[in-house]
Amino acid sequence: MRRLERAAKWLASLALSIAVASMANAVDGVIEINQATVEASGGFPFVIDEPGSYRLTSDLATGASGAGGIRIAASDVSLDLNGFRIVGCPDAFCLGNTGPGTGAGIEVDDDELRVGVRVANGHVVGSANHGIWLGDQSAVRDVVVRSTGGSGIAVGAGSVVSHCISSANVGNGVYVHGRGGIVRDTAASDNQSFGIVVREGSVVSGSTVRGSGSSGIQGLEGSRIVGNVSMENQIYGIRCVDGCSIEGNTAQDNIHDGIYAGDASTVRGNVARGNTQHGLRINEGSLAQGNTSFENGQRGLYVIFGTAGFRENVLRDNGEGQVGASLNGAALDLGDNQCGHNGSCAGAVQP
Asked: CA 238 to CA 235: how far, in whole Å?
């Protein structure tokens, strides 16, 4: 009898040890997370409250709980999704569906306190709120986010989003909510708000945006928008506020203007084609140089306020003429422009 009791106690102790080990299983210093460990720890959201490296070893399905997937309550956390998914919707594919409740797929508990978080290599699908919401100095790389109830990917100041796909989200595809961020080599499509939106002094490069409910790419003061493609968006293809550099982009088939640049901006080497209104719209003190703007519904280039210069552009086959300005604007022809088939830039003023 005593032997049986001792055996039972030993088995119970072994089971407990296995459960604890599985909840905090560390391989080469990396703590592993899976559906079983989450459920054993009390369910969703799973809370990471210590700095370190974490890795998924299975999909995480929050189901009908309405809770988020992973909540990060520490700085300096590296989360490797390891090719797995965090799924918030009740069906297998989440096509156009978000889950119940208000939980995010991955989020920090305080985006002002939690810095230096890295998320990589997996999928976040169907969460009721944002897909990924992080604070300053964070990085998101090689992640696919879709069908979420907020923004797909959101990061704070000094953060980097790279090689990601963000689609069919209720909010923005990618949102940098602090200054000095970088978004590169990323695709954003069919998001209900902006495709990619960044704060002051940020860089958006090498990215493709399509089918946004608002503008495709939006930047605030002092940002650089370089080498992107933005098409079929409901407002502007690219819009950047004052002091921006907009270079080497293609803006095509957007419902409003192809490219809109605020005051004192440089618009260089872009292609604007087939946009419903103007190909290029620039403001006071800006320079448009070396662009091609054609087959747009209104003007190839339009100055809405103040005097802005243009040189070495090709402007042709635009619906209401090649160059224009509002009553408060003037387009200053600085030379070497090709306007229409006869080369004349009617509507411009000479220096």
From this structure: 9
Confidence of residue 21 (pLDDT cuts 50, 70, 90): very low
Q: Are 308 and 288 contacting, i.e. CB atoms less than 8 angstroms apart?
A: yes
3-class secondary structure for the chain?
CHHHHHHHHHHHHHHHHHHHHHHCCEECCEEEECHHHHHHCCCCCEEECCCEEEEECCCEECHHHCCCCEEECCCCEEEECCCCEEECCCCCCCCCCCCCCCCCCEEECCCCCCCCCEEEEEEEECCCCCCEECCCCCEEEEEEEECCCCCCEEECCCCEEECCEEECCCCCCEEECCCCCEEECCEEECCCCCCEEECCCCEEECCEEECCCCCCEEECCCCEEECCEEECCCCCCEEECCCCEEECCEEECCCCCCEEECCCCEEECCEEECCCCCCEEEECCCEEECCEEECCCCCCEEEEEEEEEEECCEEECCCCCCEEECCCEEEEECCCCEECCCCCCCCCECC
78 belongs to a structural domain: no
In percent, how much of the chain has pLDDT > 90? 81
Comparing CA positions, the residue from 169, 225, 178, 217 lying closest to residue 194 is 217
What is the domain count for the chain? 1
Q: If pLDDT is split at 50, 70 and 90, which confidence band does 291 have?
A: very high
Q: Is residue 258 part of a domain?
A: yes
In a domain, 16, yes or no: no
**Residue 50 CB-half CA count within 13 A:** 7
Per-residue pLDDT, 27:
77
Residue 201 lies in a domain: yes
CB 82 within 8 A of CB 56: yes
Range 314-343 average pLDDT: 92
CA–CA separation, 90 and 126 (whole Å): 8
262-273, pLDDT tens digit by residue? 999 999 999 999
| Domain range enclosing 248 | 194-351
Lowest-pLDDT choice from 17-31, 85-99, 215-229, 255-269: 17-31
Report pTM. 0.91
